[in-house]
What we know:
The complex is a heterodimer of chains A (345) and B (178).
Chain A lengths: L1 H10 L2 E6 L5 E4 L4 H8 L14 H15 L6 E9 L5 E11 L2 E8 L1 H51 L6 H17 L4 H10 L12 H4 L7 H18 L5 H12 L20 H16 L10 H9 L8 H9 L1 H10 L5
Antiparallel strand pairs in A: 1-2, 1-5, 3-4, 4-5
Helix pairs in contact in A: 5-6, 5-10, 5-13, 6-9, 8-9, 9-10, 10-11
Chain B lengths: L7 E5 L2 E12 L5 H10 L12 E10 L2 E10 L18 E7 L3 H18 L4 E6 L11 H9 L2 E4 L8 H12 L1
Parallel strand pairs in B: 2-4, 2-5, 5-6, 6-7
Antiparallel strand pairs in B: 1-2, 3-4
Amino acid sequence: MNSILSGVIQSFDMVALCVQGDGRFQLLGQATPWFNELFAGSAPPGALRLEGKSLFLDNFLVDAREHWGARKEGSLSSGPFLESGLGQGDHALEARALLVEGQCVLVIVNLGQSYEVNRKLLQAARQNLLNQEILELEVSKRTVAIRDRQLELAARLIYAAGFRDEETGAHIKRIGLYSGEIAAQLGWSPYAVDDIRTAAPMHDIGKIGIPDKILKKPGPLSASEFTIMKTHASIGGEILGASEVPMIQMAAEIASNHHECWNGRGYPRGLYGEHIPEAARIVAIVDVYDALVHERVYKPALPEEQALAIMAKSVGIQFDPRIFEVFLANIDTMRAIREEVKDEN
Amino acid sequence: MSAKPGLWCDSINGNDMLQKKICLLGAFSVGKTSLIRRFVNSMFDARYFTTVGVKVDKKVVTVSSEEVMLLIWDISGEDEFQRMSASYLRGAAGYVVVVDGTRPKSYNTALAVQQRAVNVLGDVPAVTAVNKVDLVDSWVFTREQEDNLKQKGSVLYTSAKTGENVEQLFEVLARAIL
């Protein structure tokens, strides 16, 4: 065995050592200069002790002895490691433990140029990954910037509408937060949840197109006035419609459909059931909830229990029963939002 | 040879000195090798040279007037192509997990690597280095991620480039180990 192995060893930049009974190593073939420098020194070739020469090799020998002890087939590789010699630069090495005709053999290979070639290949691959990460990060930053701009525009639009509408800024903000919470509970994607949080506050944007004499009328509306008032839904849909921005598309759906009823008796189109966009079905519930539990110039705030009792009567008529159930299951969160975003006195 | 993991007595200059193995872990290109180079050789090279395999460096630190030789294992960073061999961690008395503040992916890798280190080493001291603090304007860390790292142990904001907190990083770990 030794002569065959010695021949192989001579043709590569490696050394092979046979494990002796006392745990020491015997060289098979010639030692190389780097091996002498790093591991052998002036020790006699028949009685080498490798332990203590290299921290990495010491660690690998634990695994190697286990490998030999288990009489496992194949070789166990240490993976590359770098050892500093006396001269300039590091030696890139790799150790392998194997059994040759029943003998425990340790081979230490000087990887030489192949190490550098492989390192450069890996570096190129990693550089590609880094470039990809940089690109992804840039896309993500720009997406956030675009979303921020959308949010700002939406906020300014809502602010403009607020000059004509009696609804408070706090109410508008709460509608977004309630809607986002329910959407999340319904399993919407985080992007869609973000969208409804921004889009829902625009549900009454169409009121901008309603004449002051109707919008700001202190008393009850006549039938014809109410007919005009109802057009705020379609006006809102028109203002926000035909956008390619998903959040604005959702805002248009909500503005157009938040007065549609589950039983088809709502307006403007009389849609029913799941024909009504889900976002609008969510907003329909939270808009009524928020209006009932807060004071307005024309009515006092109702206790929550009473408000929920009133709303419960509209389930299956005005409200989607499934979404109402989710709403009720998360009433604590709704209450927390109310606590957090209060009307200004 | 060793009384407990990471502890050896070695005769250097005629004195027995405590030796402790520590490992630097983390994603590729977060600056593990640069931190070691800054700590051991007081040098920095802005060019990126990926590490393949393992290189062990040594440096003596003084903790509470006791000298300790740190045996610092620089282990090749993790990526889609390479994973750290658990056997490299054997006997480590502690470890540093390095994160690149400018790269969100390195945070996820750090968490995964740290979990694997805990599985292998158990509850040994660990310090997180959020590296490249000289590029803090380009950091993408969220407050939540920072808090999460702090819950797992000491966090230091380091720069291998400027040397900021590099000495402290190794001292904090050495102190925790002792």
